[in-house]
Automatic annotation (TrEMBL):
<dbReference type="InterPro" id="IPR024507">
    <property type="entry name" value="AtzH-like"/>
</dbReference>
<dbReference type="InterPro" id="IPR032710">
    <property type="entry name" value="NTF2-like_dom_sf"/>
</dbReference>
<dbReference type="Pfam" id="PF11533">
    <property type="entry name" value="AtzH-like"/>
</dbReference>
<dbReference type="Pfam" id="PF01425">
    <property type="entry name" value="Amidase"/>
</dbReference>
<feature type="domain" description="Amidase">
    <location>
        <begin position="158"/>
        <end position="524"/>
    </location>
</feature>
<dbReference type="InterPro" id="IPR023631">
    <property type="entry name" value="Amidase_dom"/>
</dbReference>
<dbReference type="InterPro" id="IPR036928">
    <property type="entry name" value="AS_sf"/>
</dbReference>
<protein>
    <submittedName>
        <fullName>DUF3225 domain-containing protein</fullName>
    </submittedName>
</protein>
<dbReference type="InterPro" id="IPR020556">
    <property type="entry name" value="Amidase_CS"/>
</dbReference>
C-alpha cells in the first residue's frame, strides 16, 4: 500500500534507495544521504551524526536480508522552506521541500522492520537528512551471544548475588556445553565439558544466574573486540566504535543491560580495555588469585580472571564473595591484605602517561586537579614505570611462546581456520625460540620487582587506555601498540588493576586505571569506589 499523495520524484528516489540497500551498493547509498556534518542516522545501537560517520558504518554493516516494502506513508513537512499546514495536499516538488516517509519492511525470512526518513529536495535532488531504522526483532544478537537464556542456568535461590545475571566469556567450562573460544571450527570439534569451572560455579552458588555464553575474540588473542566469524559486538557508549576485546561479548552484554556481571579474562588488558571503551567497571585480579581450572588458557604466566559491571557497588559484591573463603570453593590463597584499606596515596607513572592522547591527558589532568582541590585531597607523586618498550617486548615474547604451545598444534591442523589478524599473531608466536623466551622471562623479573616496589605503599593511577574507543573503520595498529604498552606492565607483574569510568573525552568514556599490590583486590575496589564518589561529589 502506498499513500497516493507522495510526489512521483520522491517515490522514485525512495525506490532507488531501497534497491541500493538490497544490493548493498555503498556508493549509491552514500549519495542518497545529504552531505555534511548534520545528517543523522539512528537505530537500536545509537545515533550516527554526519555523513562521514554514516558512510563508515555502512562500509562495515553488510547488506540486509531479502525483503519487500509492504507500506510507505508520506507526510509533507515543508514546501520551499515553509511549514506545511495539516491537511495540505501534495504538489510538484520544488527545492527546499521537506517530507517524512515511514515504510514497513516485510522480510522473506519472517519478521517486519520500520524505516523513518526525512527527505529534503536540494538542487533538484531528494536527499535523506535524517533516518531511523527499527530492525525486525532478533532471536539474539549473535555478535554478543553464542547461547543465551532467561536464564541460561539458574543459580542458587538465595545468596549475596541473588537476582544478578552473568554473561560468561566463551573460554570457561560449563558442564554439558562446549568451549568455543570465538572460533566455529574449534567449537564444532570440542567435546562437552564434564564439570563447570570454579569461577562460574562460585557465582552460581552466590545466587547469580547465567544469562548466557558470550563471544570472545578468537582464542582471546586480541584487544580490539572484533571477530571475523561472528561480527563485532556493539559499543554501547560510542556508536560505530570497537567494543574492546578480547572480552568484547561480556562487556557489550553488561553495557547494554543484557547481564549485570561479565565473567571475563585479562591477559594483556582484555578486561580493562573494553571497560574503558564502554564506560564500565572492570577488575583484573591478582595473578593466580582466582582459580583458572576449567578456563581455556592463552598465556598462563599472565592469564587472570575478573569481572565487568556497570557500577562499583555490584563489582564490590562480586569481589567480596568470589575473593573470600566463603565465596570460593577452591581458592586456597590468603586474602588478608584486602581486609585493610589501601593507602590514600597515588603515583602517576610518567612513561605510561606519555602514551596517552592529548585530549585524554587534559581530561586526566583535570581529574587530578579536582582531587587535589577536594575536601579529602590525596598526595600525588610522579614516578618512572620503566622502559615500556622493553616491558612490552619481553611480555609479548613470553605471551606468544605460551600461546603457541597452547594452540599451535590445533592451528597447524586447521590452516585458514582463524582470521588474518589472529593468524598473523600466531605466525609470529610460532617463530619464538626457547632461548628468546628464556631471555624474556629474565628481562621481566626486574620489571615486575620494580612495579611491586612502587605499589608497596601507594597506588598507581593513570588513564586505562590512550583515548576513547576507535571507530571500527580506523587504523588501530598504532592505538593497539600504545594501549598494550599501558596495560602490559600490571600483567607482567601479576598485579591487580581496576578500570573506573571517570573521564569523558569528546563525549566518550575513558577509564582511569588503579594498580595496587598483589592480593589487595577487594581493597582496590573499595579505593576505586571512594575515588569515584569523591569525583561525583566534586562534579555535583
Amino acid at each position: 500500500m502506498t499513500d497516493a499523495t507522495i510526489p512521483g520524484d520522491l517515490r522514485e528516489a525512495f525506490d532507488a534507495y531501497e534497491r541500493a540497500i538490497v544490493a548493498n551498493d555503498l556508493d549509491a547509498l552514500d549519495a542518497f544521504f545529504a552531505p555534511g556534518g548534520d545528517t543523522l542516522r539512528g537505530d537500536t545501537a545509537g545515533l550516527l551524526v554526519g555523513h562521514e560517520a554514516i558512510s563508515g558504518f555502512r562500509a562495515l554493516r553488510g547488506g540486509v536480508p531479502p525483503r519487500e516494502i509492504a507500506q510507505v506513508h508520506y507526510r509533507p513537512l515543508a514546501r520551499g522552506g515553509e511549514a506545511v499546514e495539516s491537511g495540505d495536499v501534495a504538489q510538484e516538488s520544488t527545492d527546499g521541500d521537506v517530507a517524512l516517509l515511514v515504510s514497513v519492511s516485510a522480510f522473506r525470512g519472517g519478521g517486519r522492520g520500520l524505516q523513518t526518513q526525512v527527505w529534503q529536495r536540494i538542487d533538484g535532488r531528494w536527499f535523506i537528512t535524517a533516518a531511523h531504522v527499527t530492525p525486525r526483532t532478533p532471536a539474539l544478537d549473535r555478535t554478543i551471544w553464542r547461547s543465551v537464556g532467561d536464564p541460561f542456568l539458574q543459580g542458587a535461590w538465595e545468596g549475596p548475588l541473588e537476582g544478578l545475571t552473568v554473561a560468561v566469556k566463551d573460554l570457561f567450562a560449563i558442564a554439558g556445553f562446549r568451549i568455543g573460544a570465538g572460533n566455529p571450527t574449534f567449537l564444532e570439534e570440542a567435546r562437552p565439558e564434564k564439570a563447570t569451572a570454579p569461577a562460574v560455579a562460585d557465582l552460581l552458588r552466590a545466587g547469580a544466574s547465567l544469562r548466557g555464553i558470550a563471544r570472545t575474540d578468537e582464542f582471546a588473542y586480541s584487544i580490539a573486540g572484533d571477530n571475523v566469524h561472528y561480527g563485532t559486538p556493539p559499543n554501547r557508549a560510542v556508536v560505530g566504535a570497537l567494543p574492546g576485546g578480547s572480552s568484547s561479548g561480556p562487556a557489550s552484554a553488561v553495557a547494554l543491560g543484557h547481564a549485570d556481571i561479565g565473567l571475563a579474562t585479562d591477559t594483556a588488558g582484555s578486561i580493562r580495555v573494553p571497560a574503558s571503551y564502554q564506560g564500565l567497571w572492570g577488575l583484573r585480579t591478582t595473578h593466580d588469585l582466582v582459580p583458572r581450572q576449567g578456563m581455556l588458557p592463552l598465556a598462563q604466566s599472565f592469564d587472570t580472571i575478573g569481572w565487568l559491571t556497570r557500577d562499583g557497588e555490584t563489582l564490590q559484591r562480586v569481589a567480596d564473595w568470589c575473593l573470600s573463603y566463603d565465596g570460593s570453593a577452591s581458592t586456597e590463597n590468603v586474602y588478608g591484605a584486602s581486609g585493610d584499606d589501601l593507602p590514600w596515596r597515588f603515583l602517576v607513572p610518567e612513561e605510561i602517561l606519555a602514551c596517552v592522547e592529548p585530549d585524554t591527558r587534559t581530561a586526566f589532568s583535570r581529574l587530578l586537579a579536582a582531587l587535589a582541590a577536594s575536601d579529602d585531597p590525596p598526595p600525588f607523586r610522579a614516578v618512572s614505570s620503566g622502559d615500556l618498550d622493553a616491558t612490552f617486548t619481553a611480555f609479548r615474547t613470553v605471551q606468544g611462546a605460551e600461546a603457541w604451545r597452547n594452540d599451535g598444534e590445533w592451528l597447524r591442523a586447521h590452516p585458514g581456520a582463524v582470521g588474518p589478524a589472529v593468524a598473523e599473531r600466531f605466525r609470529l608466536a610460532a617463530q619464538i625460540t626457547a632461548a628468546e623466551e628464556a631471555a624474556a622471562r629474565r628481562d621481566l623479573e626486574p620489571i615486575a620487582a620494580h612495579l611491586a616496589e612502587l605499589v608497596d605503599g601507594a597506588v598507581l593511577i593513570f588513564p586505562t587506555v590512550p583515548g576513547p574507543a576507535p571507530l571500527r573503520t580506523a587504523d588501530v595498529d598504532a592505538v593497539r601498540a600504545a594501549t598494550l604498552r599501558m596495560t602490559a606492565p600490571a600483567a607482567a607483574a601479576g598485579l591487580p588493576a581496576i578500570s573506573v569510568p571517570l573521564l569523558t573525552v569528546a563525549g566518550a568514556p575513558v577509564g582511569v586505571c588503579l594498580v595496587s599490590r598483589a592480593g589487595t583486590d577487594i581493597a582496590l575496589v573499595r579505593l576505586a569506589r571512594r575515588l569515584a564518589a569523591l569525583m561525583a561529589g566534586a562534579a555535583g
